[in-house]
């Protein structure tokens, strides 16, 4: 979803775009050609093509160039790496001028085992670099609390809910996003009571509409990570296509390239005015309206609204809509 141009645009819209330091932007001098090749490939060839594309080595020179371009053009830069490459690239990311370091894999815990004499220790990392550090992903109270005690600034919540992700299909592992968010938010509150430090909880994945976004905040999220819905923006680099960070794994791919279509400018997706009634545009307007309806003046009050399990909430009383939908 994110290239340097999109990162700058998203920053100026009030968001924080995360540049994948292990993606095509840092493996190729001209990533546009590679992206075009990926989106034009037949569906049955995309996994093998992604594996080939991502087998090219990461160029340290491009890491600095991409981060510096974002900064020079007025953007806020968050850079993402996997735990396995954090010690290799963290200092380079900081020296290039990034504002936030994101360390992300399918599941990340405070206990890192590796072949190196000394694994990745988040407490030491947070002290050695002067960057706020966000770590993920996580879905449980105990794992979240243990991560928070290492000194990180934020935690990404979610295993498998993303539109491109097949982790639940391949590994059989996952937790529903509202439950995962509530558990990690409970860990945040406990950590705050114990230390006075507030660690942001970021719901990552499964946000397909304003409804999903609002429920994430009601469940305790301080922010959300968006993917497919932003890939629908006219300014997104992949022209209405989207693929995940594990789609190219050399041994066990856990994601697909999906077509989400190009639907609207980024401004309309975020702030409206919406031209559709399905909740995929004017996300900020949806959140503001939901907060108003629930009587929440700010995000912290939204965390305290009542939640109920209501499977029929989107279909109750909608017989005419459903009949017309299925007759089309």
Global Rg: 20 Å
User: How many distinct domains?
Assistant: 1
- Rounded mean pLDDT is 95
Q: What is the strand tally?
A: 9
- Give, in spatial order, the strands making up the sheet with the most strands: 1-2-3-4-5-6-7
Strand fraction equals: 5-15%
With helices defined by DSSP (H or I, 4 residues minimum), what is the helix count?
A: 15
Structural class: alpha/beta
CATH topology: TIM Barrel
* Order of H and E elements: HEHHHEHEHEHEHHEHEHEEHHHH
List keywords for this structure.
TIM Barrel; seven-stranded parallel beta sheet; two-stranded antiparallel sheet; globular
Walk me through this protein's architecture:
The structure is a single chain. This protein has one domain (4-327): Aldolase class I (TIM Barrel, Alpha-Beta Barrel). The protein is 42% helix and 10% strand. It has helices spanning 4-12, 31-40, 46-53, 60-72, 83-96, 122-128, 141-148, 167-171, 177-195, 210-218, 228-231, 266-271, 283-294, 299-302, 319-327; strands at 18-20, 78-81, 100-104, 133-138, 154-157, 200-204, 223-225, 241-242, 258-259. The chain has a 7-stranded parallel β-sheet with strand order 1-2-3-4-5-6-7. Strands 8-9 form a two-stranded antiparallel ribbon. α1 (4-12) packs parallel to α4 (60-72) and α10 crosses α13 (283-294). It is globular, with a radius of gyration of 20 Å. The model has no long low-confidence stretch (mean pLDDT 95).
């Amino acid at each position: 979803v994110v290239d340097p141009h999109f990162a700058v645009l998203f920053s100026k819209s009030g968001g924080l775009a995360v540049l994948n330091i292990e993606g095509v932007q840092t493996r190729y001098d001209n990533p546009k050609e590679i992206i075009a090749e990926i989106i034009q490939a037949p569906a049955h060839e995309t996994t093998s093509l992604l594996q080939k594309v991502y087998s090219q080595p990461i160029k340290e020179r491009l890491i600095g160039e991409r981060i510096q371009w974002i900064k020079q053009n007025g953007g806020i830069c968050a850079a993402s790496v996997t735990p396995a490459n954090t010690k290799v690239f963290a200092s380079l990311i900081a020296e290039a001028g990034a504002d936030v370091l994101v360390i992300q894999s399918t599941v990340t815990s405070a206990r890192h085992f590796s072949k190196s004499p000394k694994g990745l220790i988040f407490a030491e990392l947070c002290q050695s670099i002067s960057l706020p550090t966000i770590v993920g992903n996580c879905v449980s109270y105990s794992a979240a609390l243990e991560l928070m005690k290492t000194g990180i600034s934020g935690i990404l919540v979610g295993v498998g809910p993303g539109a491109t992700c097949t982790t639940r299909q391949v590994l059989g592992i996952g937790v529903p996003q509202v439950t995962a968010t509530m558990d990690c938010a409970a860990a945040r509150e406990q950590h705050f009571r114990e230390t006075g430090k507030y660690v942001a909880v970021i719901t990552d994945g499964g946000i397909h509409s304003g409804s999903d976004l609002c429920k994430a905040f009601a469940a305790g999220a301080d922010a959300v990570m968006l993917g497919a819905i932003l890939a629908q923006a006219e300014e997104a680099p992949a022209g209405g296509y989207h693929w995940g960070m594990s789609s190219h794994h050399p041994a066990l791919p856990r994601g697909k390239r999906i077509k989400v279509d190009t639907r609207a400018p980024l401004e309309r997706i975020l702030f409206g005015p919406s031209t559709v009634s399905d909740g995929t545009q004017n996300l900020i307007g949806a959140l503001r309206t939901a907060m108003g309806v629930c009587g929440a003046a700010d995000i912290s009050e939204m965390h305290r609204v009542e939640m109920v399990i209501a499977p029929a909430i989107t279909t109750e009383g909608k017989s005419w809509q459903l009949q017309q939908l299925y007759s089309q």
